[in-house]
Amino acid sequence: MSERSQRIVAPVLILVVFLLAWEGMVTALKIEQFLLPKPTAILSNLVQVVRVDAADSTVLADREVAALLRANRLVVDLPAAVSPELLVPAEEGLIAEFRQGSRRVLLTRGGNLTPILQASWYTLKEALGGLAMGATAGILVALATARWTATREALLPFAIAANSMPIIAFAPILNNWFGIDNPFSKMAIVAVMVFFPLMINTVRGLTSAPPRSLELMRSYAASEFAILFKARIPNALPYLFSGLKVAGALAMIGAIVGEYFGGPRIALGVFITQEASLFRFASAWAAILMACAMGISLYLLIILAERLAMPWHSSFRE
Amino acid sequence: MTEAVVLLDSVDKTFGGGTAAQVQALSDINLSIGQNEFVSLIGPSGCGKSTLLRVIGDLITPSAGQAKVNGKSAAQARLDRDYGMVFQAATLYDWRTVAKNVQLPLELMKYPKEKKEQRTREMLALVELSDFARHYPWQLSGGMQQRVAIARALAFQPSILLMDEPFGALDEMTRERLNLELLDIWRKTKTTVVFVTHSITEAVFLSTRVVVMSARPGRITQDIPIDLPQPRSVETRENVRFFELEMQVREALRQSERRPESVEGRQPQ
User: Fold this and answer.
1) A 228-287 residues with CB < 8 A to B
2) Of A62, A86, A110, which residue sits at a domain end?
3) For every residue of B159-217, which 3-state class applies, written as one string?
4) What is the pTM of this model?
5) Residue A61: domain span
6) What is the pLDDT of residue B195?
7) Nearest CA to CA, how far is B79 from chain A (Å)?
8) What digits encode the pLDDT tens for the residues A246-272?
9) Which of A136, A244, B80, B172 is the most buried (most CB within 10 A)?
10) Do A85 and A199 lie in a common domain?
11) Which of A110, A125, A144 is at the close of a domain?
């Protein structure tokens, strides 16, 4: 096996073993679903044909549901005990809502994949929008402070103070300012959160150019502009990307936690809190794993961009 | 000697002037360097030889006295791009290939594309690195990196080459080979070289003149002409005169160190 494929195969193997152990442990120790659902339960929550919601939190067994819905002839196939009250579909994919004994049962087609994907996309847009705004602001301020040292001394204490604040505490206020359903309210939180790591890293990169390389530029009588673009900015790139990696994770956290304080129903944070408060832990877990997958993808994208932007850097030497 | 390329007139340099940590790095330096000379500055560390080189190159402004280069102020000479600099570390830009590193000054000086590429090819041929044009600096050995730095310094045909211990970090074998290469380049390009070193052998072998400095404060104690025949070669090192001159420089250094010490000397980083 080549070293390269080994680098990919080994982590994948570890992941598979981890999932199997999780599944086995939940089954063997008879851990309750609401404490920790099995990976298969989380997966089937995404892809199952129907979603069953019971207001008293009991869930119908899959085969019961299958019986209910066989060939989509819902009314005909219902067990005798059920008195169906077919209602007008309230949400997309809703097949039926009825009572079974004391239980109120909602049947929906398509599992949670579609709503979770929709919610993820919505939240990802918030995270990326906020990241773009915060990163742009951070880099611009860094360029200004690296160029005019006076600006750095004047602004840095405020930037550090801003970084020490629990920015997420402002989420309800920002929701109030921009409107709870306005994605901009979450983007603003994200932008404030990512501003500092990007600014401070970029400043460090811009100001840490080796003194000799600046002397060299000076000996060529290079303009400030040329020194910035040919020496300082390339030197700052590795720093900028490490800031960006931190900021990428912060952006996902900021967007989702911001949504915990309220947002439209199609947002991932709102989806997770709703599902959890209704004891639908498998779908909450599914949404959380989707959020993780997005965070990891964002990180990988930043690494890819890093490789493309600075193939010369020591971290990529074979 | 024809008209002086470098002319230093009573140059003083004090760092941290007015503070308790004040250090006099250079004191009353008078030096004249002519066209096509190869002058080495040698002295114990802290004697201000690197500071002196930077005063000539207008990277440091003297506290008193004047530095004139090619008949104008050092500042004007820098703006006119009269200097090629080579440091102890090659100071190549990691993000540029070897060819792009050599082109850096040409880009800054807005050479047309064709001339830029032609000069780059010529320079890489001069330092025998034509096959490495597309390599990145980290793929090269220390000696090769230093040759790229020399090619870069010479690319725009500066009238003066300022070298600050360019081979100080290299092993003895590489250093001797690069010494020969540098002399070859010097003959071909007819530049004036000011060379800072702390190696007596290197100074005597390369130079037409060795300027010996003492520390604290840095001042010139002796100016020794090196009358070894040109062109120099491996045999030069076996010449009896070579040993005599080495002895003379060593003795001059010893005398300069015996001078009473005053304040701590310091070299700029």
Assistant:
1) 230-231, 234, 237
2) A110
3) CEEEEECCCCCCCHHHHHHHHHHHHHHHHHHCCEEEEEECCHHHHHHHCCEEEEEECCC
4) 0.75
5) 52-110
6) 92
7) 5
8) 999 999 999 999 999 888 888 999 999
9) A244
10) no
11) A110
CA distance A246 to A266: 26
In a domain, A3, yes or no: no
Nearest-neighbour CA in chain B from A316: distance (Å)? 12
Note whether residue A41 is domain-resident: no
CATH of the domain at A231: 1.10.3720.10
- Is A46 part of a structural domain of the chain? no
B138: distance to nearest CA of chain A, Å? 8
Given a contact cutoff of 8 angstroms between Cβ atoms, the answer to whether A114 and A51 are in contact is no
Residues from chain A that touch B80, judged by Cβ atoms under 8 A, are: 221
CATH class for the region spanning B1-82+162-167+190-269: alpha beta
Whole-number Å distance between alpha carbons of A192 and A141: 13
- The minimum CA-CA distance between B2 and chain A, rounded to whole Å, is 25
Q: Which residue of B has its CA nearest to A316?
A: B138
Of A217, A220, A234, the CB nearest to B95: A234
> Do residue A103 and residue A121 come from a single domain?
no
A280 in the same domain as A232: yes
Give a yes or no: residue A232 inside a domain: yes
Question: What is the distance between the alpha carbons of residues A215 and A203, in angstroms, rounded to a whole number?
Answer: 20
Give the total number of structural domains in chain A: 2
Examine the domain organization and report whether A99 and A180 are in the same domain: no
Structure tokens at B132: 């490495």
Domain residue spans of chain B: 1-82+162-167+190-269
Q: Which two tokens stand for residue A305?
A: 């961009």
CB contact under 8 A, B78 and A219: yes
Encode pLDDT of A4-49 as tens digits.
778 888 888 998 999 999 999 988 988 887 788 888 888 777 765 4
Calculate the CA dihedral of residues A289, A292, A298, A302 and round it to 10 degrees.
-140
Q: Which residues of B have a CB under 8 Å from any CB of A?
A: 54, 57, 59, 78-81, 83-85, 87, 89, 91, 93-96, 104-105, 107-109, 136, 138, 162, 269
A262 to chain B, minimum CA–CA distance in Å? 46
Separation between Cα atoms, residue A208 and residue A239, nearest integer Å: 10
Closest chain A residue to B98, measured at CA: A312
CB contact under 8 A, B85 and A317: no
Q: Tell whether A309 lies on the interface with B, counting CB pairs under 8 A.
A: no
What are the structure tokens assigned to B190, written together? 């007819």
Q: Are residues A65 and A203 in the same domain?
A: no
- Rounded CA gap, A100 and A79, in Å? 10
The neighbour count for residue B245, using CB atoms within 10 Å, is 22
How many other β-carbons are positioned within 10 Å of the β-carbon of residue B246? 17
Give the closest of B91, B93, B108 to A234, CB-based.
B93
Based on the domain organization, do A60 and A131 belong to the same domain? no
- Cβ-defined contact of A215 to B85 (cutoff 8 Å): yes
> A269 and A226, same structural domain?
yes
In DSSP notation, B98-118 reads HHHHHHHHHHHTT--HHHHHH
CA of B84: which chain A residue's CA is closest?
A219
